[in-house]
Amino acid sequence: MKGLSLPVITDPPVDHREVEAWLQTLGGPVWLMLEGEDDRRCRVVTTLLHGNEPSGTLALHRWLVERPRPRTRLAVLLANVRGALSHPAFTHRHTPDDRDLNRCFQPPFAGPAGELARSIIQDLESWAPECVIDLHNTSGNGPAFAVATHRHPVVEALTGRFCEQLIVTDLRLGSLMELPLTVPRLAGCPVFTLECGGALQPAARDVADGLYRLLAECPDLTALPSAPGLEVLVHPLRVELRPGASVAYDRSPRPDVDVTLWARIDEHNRGVTSPAAPLGWLGHHGLACLQARDGDGREHVGELFCVRKGRLHARRPLRIFMATTNSEIARSDCLFYAVPLA
């Protein structure tokens, strides 16, 4: 393990304590390395890049009790341990004095989060893994889905076993899944994000648990057959507040904000959003308080939405993902992602 940037715990012992107590013993970001039958090969799972997305960690803690022996080495990263343990536990995306780690996987790697991202990249380069899967929870309740920067047969075979949609995005935000585009030694490596579902949904932990087991038990990922029924959606649009705009969530319009989104907007994370369904209410600035840019920075908000009697509606059927009811995340990150359907 010479040359690695982060601590590595090999074959971590079984720990029956509560997960928070277990994380306290780790002391910070750490790799847990499960030695496999074939130690010449390595597969990687990253978890807890966001401290309020615990399903990957909870499933790992439960699975380690079984003392698994994978077919290959399996390296699992527990990244933002400090953010996860900030009181109350598993509620902080990151600590107030730091940046969103999953926006730091590109230069200049500034601050503690940037330095951590650079260390993770160095470790991944050292291992030349067969795959890298970044486990997350969705910001609101909803089904599991996957996100990648391009189509790859291994990505599609894996994601099709845990979700019904794979989103292929051209948006570049500095996330971990973009590394094959920027790190030559990771070019060609199947890397994707698996959004397991809402942090409080028991099914989300089951998705993460299933992924660990599949990666541990499958001898050859390239031989996995394609999963039938996987829907591949391309070029999502990132719907955000414009700078200075305000948002709230309620069951009726709030006169003191620019955008009042429906209190259960995360219900639109399932199925297709019809133009007939109101998404919320807009103030006197109307659509001017929103933006929806593609990967080239082009604006599409007027193509996606319209205003009817002060209500926000889709102009055409949409697939909506990552709709949150957390106003802090809505302001600092985005309201949701949308893919227009023909």
Low-confidence stretches: none
> Assembly type of the shown chains?
single chain
Major beta sheet summary: 9 strands, mixed
Please name the CATH topology of the largest domain.
Answer: Aminopeptidase
Percent helix range: 10-25%
CATH superfamily of the largest domain: Zn peptidases
What is the distance, rounded to the nearest whole angstrom, between the alpha carbons of the first and last residues?
Answer: 51 Å
From the alpha-carbon coordinates, what is the Rg to the nearest angstrom? Answer: 20 Å
Pfam families: AstE_AspA_cat
Keywords: Hydrolase, Metal-binding, Zinc
GO molecular function, one term: metal ion binding
Cofactor: Zn(2+)
How would the blueprint of this fold be written?
Layout: E1 8-10, H1 19-26, E2 30-34, E3 38-47, H2 55-64, E4 72-78, H3 81-85, H4 111-127, E5 132-138, E6 145-148, H5 153-159, E7 165-168, H6 179-182, E8 191-198, H7 202-217, E9 231-234, E10 237-241, E11 247-250, E12 259-262, E13 280-282, E14 290-293, H8 301-304, E15 305-308, E16 311-314, E17 318-321, H9 327-332, E18 336-340
Parallel strand pairs: 1-2, 3-4, 3-5, 5-8, 6-7, 7-9, 11-12
Antiparallel strand pairs: 2-4, 6-8, 10-14, 10-18, 12-13, 13-16, 15-16, 17-18
Helix pairs in contact: 2-7
Cofactor: Zn(2+)
Domain Succinylglutamate desuccinylase/Aspartoacylase catalytic: 49-150
Keywords: Hydrolase, Metal-binding, Zinc
